[in-house]
UniProtKB/TrEMBL annotation:
Pathway where it operates: Purine metabolism; ppGpp biosynthesis; ppGpp from GTP: step 1/2
Protein name: PpGpp synthetase/RelA/SpoT-type nucleotidyltransferase
Xref: PANTHER family: GTP PYROPHOSPHATASE-RELATED, RELA_SPOT DOMAIN-CONTAINING PROTEIN
Entries under Pfam families matching the protein: RelA_SpoT
Gene3D superfamilies reported for this sequence: Beta Polymerase, domain 2
Organism: Paenibacillus aceris
Domain RelA/SpoT residue range list: 50-186
Length: 511
């Protein structure tokens, strides 16, 4: 049985092809409109071009941004795609970009009911000009990128307008083709980012890039054993990514960025192999490389659902709660499906056993947090066991709320454990017995859940925040309301949701 994801993607591509004539017409009309409006600026040698998003680019974006989970229909995806149509105004110099942006703000000076602005010559073409420009991209560099809408024949399409100088056009093409389009895992990604950033700052100073390369190579000569292990992990992650990126391209016709999943799989393999010494560590690496060599010769069908030889069994409440969330997503969420497809192939054994072992590994990452021992001076073993299980289940419930594969990435699990350590510090300060814990249990676990959610930039329903505030006010707890409440006191009734991070800060605690 094929994954429903791909049926949904193909339906969306078919719908894109169905409305292609409308989109091409919209692109041309936008191009002509902006060319006419900006033609008075001939001294700046402007060029206006347009394009409609290709089917291959759309496929990749649906997977990368999880649009198949966010939207229910193909039409809904396309009508909400901000760059379905793209318009680019090309100028000569970087300083011209800001000049053109200011010019557009003067030209599009009439406000539409929807908050966007239009020019009197064409009310159907509107720009969102209230946002700060230029915008900062994920790579840290800036770009003049403006959202727009085009209305025609009772249908509204979204488009993206970019303003780019010749240097930034060159940089954008360079980064797009070398970095963005290259889904193969790269060793020392941070170094490459630094190198590309240096090129962006000064294309003429080649000696600066050579200096960075020189320093990078010299730094590898004095690596200690821990650094050598890290290098091996990066190397093996690259091999895993290279093998499956190629297979993925051949199977579904486009690439997906799953480098962090490869990192997580690699760390799982090495940590469950009990390779404490460098020699044992190297043996595990070589064994895994042999396995990957065998896998590289096999065909992989990424369209099929993952199956288990028997029912999966869990040893405790945390594992059951955490594991069931993944099992319910494993054939619906592409990232989870890809993660375990790779893991099951690398790990010899049946899928059910491999899944159980992985969940046990995740459970131990949290359960073996050294911070729990600080509670031993306050609680007996049975009491500590109960509180520990309460906190573990809270982490599992948080995972269900977050729902992201990022939860099992090593850096995120470290952040969660740091949050747990801070929570334990709070308990040591606020309670002196198990009876004290029972009094603040509901409040404490709620705050812990919000803390975990904040690591993933989640939000909390405002009514839940208000309920907890009222609970603290009504009871005699050692947890108090923070002065930060005054910042939100007039806004809470108007807000449906609040950032989890802000919700935690409303209480006088240090989490």
């Amino acid at each position: 049985m094929e994954l429903k994801i791909f049926d949904f993607i193909e339906e969306t591509i078919q719908y894109l092809e169905k409305i292609d004539d409308e989109l091409q017409h919209a692109a041309k009309e936008l191009e002509v409109c902006f060319r006419q409006l900006l033609e008075s600026n001939r001294d700046r040698d402007l060029k206006v071009s347009s394009r409609v998003k290709s089917s291959s680019s759309l496929r990749e974006k649906i997977i990368r941004n999880n649009y198949y989970k966010k939207y229910k229909t193909s039409e809904e995806i396309l009508l909400n795609l901000t760059d379905l149509v793209g318009v680019r105004v090309e100028c000569r110099f970087i300083e011209d970009e800001e000049h053109i942006h200011k010019m557009l703000k003067k030209l599009f000076n009439k406000r539409h009911a929807g908050g966007y602005f239009y020019n009197a010559l064409n009310e159907n073409i509107r720009l969102e000009l209230a946002s700060k420009q230029p915008q900062e991209q994920k790579n840290g560099f800036e770009i003049f990128r403006i959202d727009g809408v085009y209305e025609s024949n009772n249908r509204t399409f979204k488009f993206e307008l970019q303003i780019k100088s010749l240097v930034n056009i060159f940089w954008g093409e360079l980064e797009h083709k070398i970095i963005y389009k290259n889904n193969n895992y790269r060793i020392a990604d941070g170094f490459l980012k630094e190198l590309m950033g240096s090129i962006k700052k000064n294309l003429a100073m080649i000696d600066n890039q050579l200096l960075i390369i020189y320093n990078q190579f010299n730094s590898t000569k004095s690596l200690d054993p821990r650094m050598r292990k890290a290098q091996l992990e990066v190397l093996l992650s690259k091999i895993i990514n290279d093998i499956y990126a190629s297979k993925l391209q051949n199977s579904i016709g486009f690439g997906v960025d799953f480098k962090k999943s490869c990192d997580a799989i690699m760390k799982y393999i090495l940590r469950t192999s009990n390779a404490e010494h460098l020699e044992d560590y190297n043996k595990t690496i070589l064994k895994t490389m042999d396995r990957l060599n065998d896998i590289s010769k096999n065909d992989v069908n990424f369209n099929s659902e993952l199956e288990f030889e028997r029912d999966v069994r869990f040893e405790d409440d945390f594992s059951n709660q955490f594991g069931m969330v993944i099992l319910n997503s494993i054939n619906n969420d592409f990232q989870w499906n890809l993660f375990f497809r790779i893991l099951f192939e690398i790990e010899l054994g049946n899928n059910a056993e491999d899944f159980e072992t992985f969940i046990k590994f995740i459970r131990n990452r949290f359960y073996e947090n050294d911070s729990f021992c600080r509670l031993e001076s306050i609680l007996n073993k049975e009491e500590l066991h109960r509180i520990k299980n309460d906190m573990m289940l809270t982490i599992a419930y948080s995972f269900e709320t977050v729902g992201s594969i990022e939860f099992v990435y090593d850096n995120k699990m470290e952040e969660i454990n740091e949050g747990v350590a801070s929570f334990i510090d709070l308990l040591c300060e606020k309670i002196s017995s198990y009876e004290d814990w029972e009094k603040i249990r509901e409040i404490g676990l709620t705050l812990l859940k919000w803390k975990v959610m904040s690591i993933f930039n989640c939000t909390v329903e405002t009514y839940k925040v208000k309920e907890l505030i009222q609970m603290v006010k009504d009871g005699h707890y050692k947890i108090e309301i923070s002065k930060r409440i005054f910042k939100y006191i007039d806004k809470l009734d108007e807000m449906d949701k609040l950032k989890a991070e802000d919700a935690v800060r409303l209480f006088k605690i240090d989490l």
